[in-house]
Amino acid sequence: MKKADIHEVFRAFRAANPAPVTELIAPNEFCLLVAVVLSAQATDVGVNKATPALFKAADTPAKMVKLGEAKIKHHIKTIGLFNTKAKNVFALSQMLVERFEGRVPHSQAELESLPGVGRKTANVWRNCVLGELTIAVDTHVFRVANRLGLSRAKTPLACELALEKVVPREFKLHAHHWLILHGRYVCKARTPMCAQCGVRQWCGFKDKMIDDR
């Protein structure tokens, strides 16, 4: 995609939604980290249904450790991979208490040292909490970036690095949110709603469904 077209795509995203935010609901920075961990291979809607009771019971690392793995598991049993996620939430809470004085660290490396926290999760948290210009690549971002022609990457990391290069700085703060929301509600995996797409004139997707209803 041409540089001028990339600018127009993100200008259109900004015009439609000037300040997008994560759809995960969390009362504080720690809870947001837990919510992002739980959202892996799950929907935000599903996570938001499970977490209110969890966060009411434990909204700090110390409280989460006290709650214990079994009770964490009970609260999140409706979320996919809940056994592994419960172990990770308990372990990362324990590490935050023991190594980080109960605070979520800010650096990418320290975040990724926490159980269950990978590059995407760290990028999401740093973007949402710290306002860092990170681009988190999930399945939606990966799909939309490749369909539009922002990237031709074959892996999430390659896609992230490609987007870092081509997305103008003025749009980077909200870039991954715009791409996520576009993929979630318009540029869907199986049935892209091309007729309702506000950026289709710049899109390089060869299988556009312009007659979509």
Question: What would you say this structure looks like, in words?
Answer:
- With 213 residues, the chain is mainly α.
- It folds into 2 domains: 3-19 and 135-202, Orthogonal Bundle (Endonuclease Iii, domain 2), CATH 1.10.1670.10; 29-130, Hypothetical protein, domain 2 (Endonuclease III, domain 1, Orthogonal Bundle).
- The protein contains 11 helices and no strands.
- The chain has helices at residues 3-16, 29-38, 44-57, 61-67, 69-75, 82-99, 108-112, 119-130, 139-148, 156-166, 169-185.
- α1 (3-16) packs across α11 (169-185).
- The longest helix has 18 residues, at 82-99.
- It is elongated, with a radius of gyration of 18 Å.
What would the keywords be for this entry?
mainly alpha; 2 domains; Endonuclease Iii, domain 2; Endonuclease III, domain 1; 59% helix
Mean of all residue-level pLDDT scores: 95
Q: What's the helical proportion of residues?
A: 55-70%
Radius of gyration equals 18 Å
Total DSSP helices = 11
Sheet with most strands: none
CATH topology value of the largest domain:
Endonuclease III, domain 1
How much strand? under 5%
Q: Please give the oligomerization state of what you see.
A: single chain
Structural domains: how many:
2
Order of helices and strands: HHHHHHHHHHH
The CATH class of the largest domain: Mainly Alpha
Alpha-carbon distance between the termini? 27 Å
Contiguous low-pLDDT stretches (5 residues minimum) are none
Structural class: mainly alpha
Q: CATH homologous superfamily of the largest domain?
A: Hypothetical protein, domain 2
Question: Can you name the CATH architecture of the largest domain?
Answer: Orthogonal Bundle
Number of strands: 0
Shape: elongated
